[in-house]
Design brief:
Elements lengths: L3 H5 L5 H4 L6 E9 L3 H14 L1 H4 L2 E6 L4 H7 L5 H10 L2 E6 L13 H8 L4 E7 L10 E7 L9 E5 L6 E5 L5 H22 L2 E7 L7 H15 L7 E7 H10 L6 E4 L1 H11 L12 E3 L4 E3 L18 H13 L3 H17 L13 H11 L1
Parallel strand pairs: 1-2, 1-3, 3-12, 5-10, 8-9, 8-10
Antiparallel strand pairs: 4-5, 4-11, 6-7, 11-12
Helix pairs in contact: 3-12, 3-14, 8-9, 10-11, 12-13, 13-14
GO molecular function: homoisocitrate dehydrogenase activity; isocitrate dehydrogenase (NAD+) activity; magnesium ion binding; NAD binding
Family: Belongs to the isocitrate and isopropylmalate dehydrogenases family.
InterPro entries: IsoCit/isopropylmalate_DH_CS, IsoPropMal-DH-like_dom
């Protein structure tokens, strides 16, 4: 994926900038719920396999978060988890959360809270088909603002006095500062792709035709960041796309998209939808990036229907592990992981049920480890 230089340019990136020379890393492991408990160990195995070749040493700390943790302790994200991540870890792997679809008093999504607590303002989600596979050519990076929009979780329910019926309202927040940060990292990623590929396009996704103030601000600030630094970003094609037509075009013409930057909600929806272009959510990774820590996180959910059966696809987690290493400055190790995963997918001999196979989670891990 080659995203390290973009990480170096993150504003205030004190912690990450020093990690390029660090050969001993402390990694927090947060399985969460459901298949998270099965795929996070896969990421750990891959990291351990890198030790001899790459000279990397890892210390692992098992940490708790999730709905089960909430049921056991009354807290979905224990204070101890946040404290250890802040004080001891350079990176972490987060599995999945089994959040209920109906309101549970006192419960709130731990991954949303974790992003806020750790300052993880950028969620980087590459969606790429493997050259030589049967998938249609796709090579895009969705850069999702990670701290605001509707995910600030300010909601209320009240009785409308005129009708006597219930009304629910949610606050959508878009700030200039957060948009400047996410636009900058998206432009830097596009610049790197321009340098590597000779061309790059940045597409700003919004719904400002309806949400003229909130999405309008996101659109305006992204353009301002591009225009103010036009000499630096010369050669990058700048586009804007309304989110509903973006979804249509993404499925019809995925080859038209390169780097996509979006507010939190649209970025979440677009990246999950884009996974269908490359076969499964089980192969799409992400990295939550902030100034002090990187947390790799597969894009899939907790999949309670297959949890405990040993058949979950570990590839999204393994790719997320590689992304974490890229942003921590260990690009050679990361690229070796990417190549091993690509070889597994290209051959198509050892694959889990979501990709049409019958392999177990560990079968896939073993195949990728053998290729490393």
């Amino acid at each position: 994926m080659m995203l390290r230089s973009a990480a170096n340019k993150l504003a205030g990136c004190r912690g990450l900038a020093t990690n390029a020379a660090r050969k001993s890393l402390t990694i927090g492991l947060i399985p969460g719920d459901g298949i998270g408990k099965e795929v996070i160990p896969a990421g750990k195995q891959v990291l351990q396999s890198l030790n001899p070749k790459h000279g990397l040493n890892f210390d692992f700390i098992d940490l708790q978060a999730g709905f089960q943790t909430f049921q056991d302790t009354g807290k979905a994200l224990p204070d101890e988890t946040v404290q250890i991540l802040k004080e001891k870890c350079q990176g972490a792997l987060f599995g999945a959360v089994q959040s209920p679809t109906t309101k549970v008093e006192g419960y709130s999504s731990p991954i949303v809270a974790l992003r806020k607590a750790m300052g993880l303002y950028a969620n980087i989600r590459p969606v790429k088909s493997v050259e030589g596979s049967n998938e249609r050519p796709v090579d895009m990076i969705i850069v999702r603002e990670n701290t605001e929009d509707l995910y600030i979780k300010i909601e209320k329910t009240y009785i409308d006095k005129a009708t006597g019926t219930r009304v629910a309202e949610a606050t959508k927040r878009i700030s200039e500062i957060a948009t400047q940060r996410i636009a900058t990292i998206a432009l830097d990623i596009a610049l790197q792709r321009l340098q590597n590929n000779g061309k790059a396009t940045l597409t700003v996704t919004h719904k400002s035709n309806v949400l003229s103030q909130s999405d309008g601000l996101f659109r305006e600030v992204c353009r301002e960041m591009y225009e103010a630094n036009k000499d630096k970003y010369a050669g990058i094609t700048y586009n804007e796309q309304i989110v509903d037509s973006m979804v249509y075009r993404m499925f019809r013409e995925p080859e038209c998209f390169d780097v996509i930057v979006a507010p939190n909600l649209y970025g979440d929806i677009l990246s999950d939808g884009a996974a269908a272009l490359v076969g499964s959510l089980g192969v799409v990774p992400s990295a939550n990036v902030g100034p002090e820590i990187v947390i790799g996180e597969p894009c899939h959910g907790s999949a309670p229907d297959i949890a405990g059966k040993g058949i979950a696809n570990p590839i999204a987690t393994i790719r997320s592990t590689a992304l974490m290493l890229e942003f921590l400055g260990h690009n050679e190790a990361a690229q070796d992981i990417h190549k091993a995963v690509d070889a597994n997918l290209r051959d198509g001999l050892v694959k889990t049920a979501d990709l049409g196979g019958n392999a177990t989670t560990q079968n896939v891990v073993d195949d990728i480890l053998a290729r490393l």
